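Re: FE2/S2 (inorganic) cluster structure - here you go.
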Amino acid sequence: MATKKESITTRDGAQQSPWQSVLPTVNTNATMGQKTVYDAIVIGGGITGLTAAILLQISGRNILLAEAHTIGFGTTGGTSAHINTFADTTYKEAESAFGKEGAQLFADAINEGFELIRSNIKNYRIECDYETKTGFLYAEDEKQADQLDDIFSGAKAVGVSVNYTTKVPTPLSFEAALEFEGQAQFHPIKYALALAKAFTDAGGIILEHTNIERVEKEDENHVGISGDLKIKAKKVIYATHIPPGINSYSLRCAPYRSYVLGVKLRTDTYPDALIYDMQEPYHYFRTHEIDGEKLLIAGGNDHKTGHDDPEKAFADLEKYVRKNYNVSSIKYQWSSQYYVPVDGFPYIGEMPEASEGIYCATGYNGNGMMLGSIAGKILSDLVQGEASKYEKVFSPSRLKPAAGFKAFVQENADVAYHFVADRFGIHETDSLKRMQPGTGKLLEIDGKKIAAYRDDQGEIFALNPVCTHAGCIVNWNGEEKSWDCPCHGARYDVHGQVLTGPATFSLAKIDFNDKQKE
Ligand code: FES
């Protein structure tokens, strides 16, 4: 069980990450010009939105960034902040789906995203605990060793520096291993807040707590609407993972939860490296110093959002870490969300099903730091009418390759199943009075389906469990105290407020009489 600390920045869950103790220095007080037509509204204050916003602003554009919560509230605030030259979609898989040229472009994009982070740190003198590390990927059996051979040859073919090694700083025994030089890690919130500051210093406007509910076309411009607020712009960038509304991205990307522990060890055996195994689901380990104290950052046990029990995922991860390291205490535990694209490549570019001039970026898999950065660059180029060599390969309107990625196709089948099955999936009848404080549950009371949460004081919050995106039934996430939708990953807090899109509207509150509470 992680110990509670004081958080300064907020994120999309009840658990705390070690990144939350940074004091924000972002100027969010600037007011927007009521008559201004911005060159672009950037929706979303994570790594993608911030990277696009600063690049556009320093190119002389007039940009407004609207964030529904606070800077880094979403996945950027929950990432484990690895910066790599390789990705979850291996270069071998990339080649089989997109050909040699596609694999090379993917490698170039990853590398360019990495370089962009490095140059931003240098140019804006960002202190974000950036450190270069060696990465190790190890196989524990013959089957994994064969996969490792493919990863090696695929990486070599696109010019990534990789070698076989017999030495890995892990207590586990292994069959074979690869060593990737020149990987890195950083503090994602320090980086995000510094980019936000650089953006406002350059004249950009940030509006936090501004949920753009919809975008409408008005003459030549787009209008982002948030309550009574209307923001006019020539172009719109959705940097929100899946863009809101019913669109094909929801069927082309599967949402996953990933689990992370910040662990204090009894001995100084913290690895000075980034270490990954090849299990399904996989684990990784690295070290980060927070407030002068070393932490083993251990993660993995990923599963589809809303499909498995988050408490079990944390428990299994902790058990695995305790088995292999001399654990003194678990200081932090938190989870985060990412999106697995159906064909292995992200979707970055102009949205084919929206009106002209609306862009999005999603489907980064577990590689959001590099892909979010390069997405910011690609979107900045496209918004300015400049060519990008990645435009075609990452185009959201591309047809998915016919061969390969069977597992990704399965993702779609699961989503489609939940669309139908979840609507009839609640058989449970229970009484609210049996609910423990601090817990949530799907109930059926007097024929009415309810997402019920009892807070620590005993008060009940009842919501309609039908997701406002496309009507699936949400599931309780007892670790992050949220209602998570198994279909496309929308998440809501205990009051029904949206934490994560693609939903933009809250879950409806349900009133029930006092008799039902007894
Ligand atoms: Fe699409 Fe819930 S996120 S139905």
